[in-house]
Amino acid sequence: MTSSFPHRPTMVVVTGAAGFIGSHLVQGLLDNGLEVVGIDRRTPETDAIARLNLRDVTGHPRFSLFSGDLSFVSLNLLVRDAACVFHLSAIPAVRASWAEFERYVTANVMATQRLLDACVQEGVSKVVYASASSVYGPAEAPSGENDPAQPISPYGITKLAGEQLCLAYAKRPASRLSVTALRYFTVYGPRQRPDMAISRILAAALAGEPFVIFGDGTQRRDFTYVGDVVAATIAAADIEVPATVINVGGGSSISVSDIIAMARTVTGNPVPLTAGAAQAGDVPATAADLSLARVLLGFQPRIDLQTGMTRHAQWLQKLPADLLRTYGPPPTTDQDQSAP
Ligand code: NAD
User: Fold this and answer.
1) Residue 111 Cβ contacting ligand 1 at under 6 Å
2) DSSP run (H or E) holding 126
3) Predicted-complex ipTM score
4) Cα distance between residue 317 and residue 127, in whole Å
5) What are the tens digits of pLDDT across the range 34-43?
6) 183 lines ligand 1 (CB under 6 A)
7) Which of 43, 119, 221, 267 is least enclosed by beta carbons within 10 angstroms?
8) Could you tell me the CATH number of the domain that includes residue 63?
9) pTM for this structure?
10) Residue 107 Cα: closest atom of ligand 1
């Protein structure tokens, strides 16, 4: 997707713009010459992580941020004239979803339905939805898009519901809305959410404080660098298929123990470990079959784990001390080694 610049730039909307992936997507879209309207309930004025995430785009002449909750605000004016709505806002993370299901349903399902209604009413022709590998549940082999979706966490169930709701809107008779749902596999890189494993592991190595490892470290994840996710997400805006689901993964399945070893390599420091129990909803392994992504998006992951983790570690090292504490130890029971 590119802009019609020097005429009025093409406008797109990003929900969850102040989040980890959303803020990288905003940057990628601006780099493509687009005008970007971000929506997020976190604001840089009141939230340190939103401020950090949006630091590089704040004040950009083609970026504006609307601070509000998708569950309450009027969305029609915001999506009117959008060439594409990238729907990334959600409550992520598996573990907390056991205790807070109502919040997850409200943010991940009900808010999605409000957004879809606004898109239909305003004649928006394209929605790209951020789905998740968590919709698959436990899998023996790389998951293909036609494999059964059997999520084993409340979070995964809300992501599957949001994804299928988007597809149902696209498949309605006479619908003019086209939907691409991207199933992201564990995303990492600078600004990764502080509850996620790679952030915690790198911060533990940098600070010399313990990382709580859930289970025996053999859980495998298809870790995906955020820049690759952004490339796939922008490419998804242009595909012609009216309603489809596509995996976006890093291309190899790597254990948490391997990540700990890589953290040592890229920081030069060991990662002190504390044992914790295996967690409910945490699948043993995720791996993406990327065949469809190659065909429909021309997608190929570009950043290998060592390069990606080096960039991630360098970003953490530049954080002011108070924020490094937010990203790093002491480990909390909220940390998420699951497959979001
Ligand atoms: P994030 O928490 O950093 O970003 C999500 C943003 O959405 C936050 O800034 C939050 O304030 C906002 N938000 C949530 N509910 C909202 C609402 N009702 N109204 C307005 N704003 C709201 O999460 P992330 O890791 O960047 O994930 C982005 C998307 O990608 C999510 O949909 C998530 O389910 C999906 N995903 C992420 C991963 C991953 O590894 N990070 C993997 C698979 C899928």
Assistant:
1) yes
2) strand 126-132
3) 0.99
4) 36
5) 999 999 999 9
6) no
7) 43
8) 3.40.50.720
9) 0.95
10) 18
